[in-house]
Amino acid sequence: MNKIAKFEKVSFEQFEKDWMKNFPQTTDVRAVYDSIKLPKRATTGSAGYDFYAPADITFYKDKSTLVPTGIRCKIEEGWVLSIYPRSGLGFKHRCQLDNTVGIIDSDYYNSSNEGHIMIKISCDAHDEGHSADVAAGDGFSQGIFTQFGITVDDDTDGVRDGGFGSTTK
User: Fold this and answer.
1) Closest Cα partner for 62 from 92, 98, 19, 23?
2) In contact, 108 and 115? CB cutoff 8 Å
3) Cβ neighbourhood burial of 68 (10 Å; 0-12, 13-18, 19+)
């Protein structure tokens, strides 16, 4: 196996800013931050690294919820981290990522938001009033590292600073 990445927590200041924007009712952000668990594989045969909910989160039917994970990832060049929902959330609740698959490039780590990985999930269940509850510390998404190549005539020299859509601005 290639060891090509390392998960870390973002700073408390970055986490607090992003968390309060999405969960303003939180009374103790420091406790949420201190309880963040770095992603891990469940078994030696697992490809995916489980991302854990930093606090109790409910995904409501027909609503998108952006979850600041408190996590960043230092990835070697030539690799990407793809983010997917945990299969149980998809099967039981029709939860899915709003961008279908999250792509975390190696240069995202150096962005001005510290490369903070945020995961936006929608619940598309058929029954009215449906919701999916995820307890603090439970897995809600997973990340898989994949190697990639580039074309022989690639001459890209752009520099990233940001996440969603930042490379096409």
Assistant:
1) 98
2) yes
3) buried
User: Which pLDDT score, from 0 to 100, does residue 107 have?
Assistant: 95
The reported pTM is: 0.90
| pLDDT reading at 165 higher than 70 | no
- Whether residue 96 contacts residue 85, with contact meaning beta carbons closer than 8 Å, is answered with yes
d(CA 11, CA 18): 11
Average pLDDT of the residues in 124-152: 93
| Structure-token match 């150096």, residue found | 110
Ranges of H-type helices in 35-167: 87-93
**CA atoms of 53 and 139, how far apart (whole Å):** 6
The residue ranges of DSSP E strands in the chain, in sequence order, are 5-9, 49-52, 57-60, 64-75, 79-85, 95-97, 102-105, 117-123, 131-134, 139-147
Output the six-digit token pair for 153.
Answer: 């005539």
Residue 11 burial (10 A CB sphere; 0-12, 13-18, 19+):
middle
